[in-house]
Design goal:
alpha+beta; two-stranded antiparallel ribbon; globular
Length: 171
Amino acid sequence: MSGQLQEMEIRDLSCDVFQVFQHATPLLSAGSAEKFNTMVIGWGGLGTLWGKAVCTVYVRPQRYTYEFMERENAFSVSVLPPECREALRVCGSESGRDVDKVKKCGLTPAFSALGAPYFEQAQLVLVCRKLYYQDIDPAHFLDQGIDGKWYPQKDYHRMYIGEIVEAYQKK
């Protein structure tokens, strides 16, 4: 793996949001140096809201990471390179309640100024300060097929919007 993560100005961040969330399969991490969890996410967005650069992520309430997202004021999104495919498989298929995923994958955690965990192996890291959350409300689906397809268990995601306060990229 080439290079080390280098901090970059958020205004200089340039990435294809569809690649980040649909093809790169990032890790969402929350917690503290004492205890944290990470999970694979495929749903998310990047943009501008309330005059701030933001990242939006979605977490189902039964996910172990949910309790860390609720407790902490910050979270991170780490985009790993293709050679970390096995780490993504483990983080996407095993629960942090049952196994130390970070140790099993050989990932090296680092912590932001806000205390949010991220991974040194990442090629892109976004550290976010939580600004807002809202639960998905099925009463607001305009396409009723979404509810049956994505929520057969009625376990609606909680949406978190975070201001991107730190960004790191491998050079």
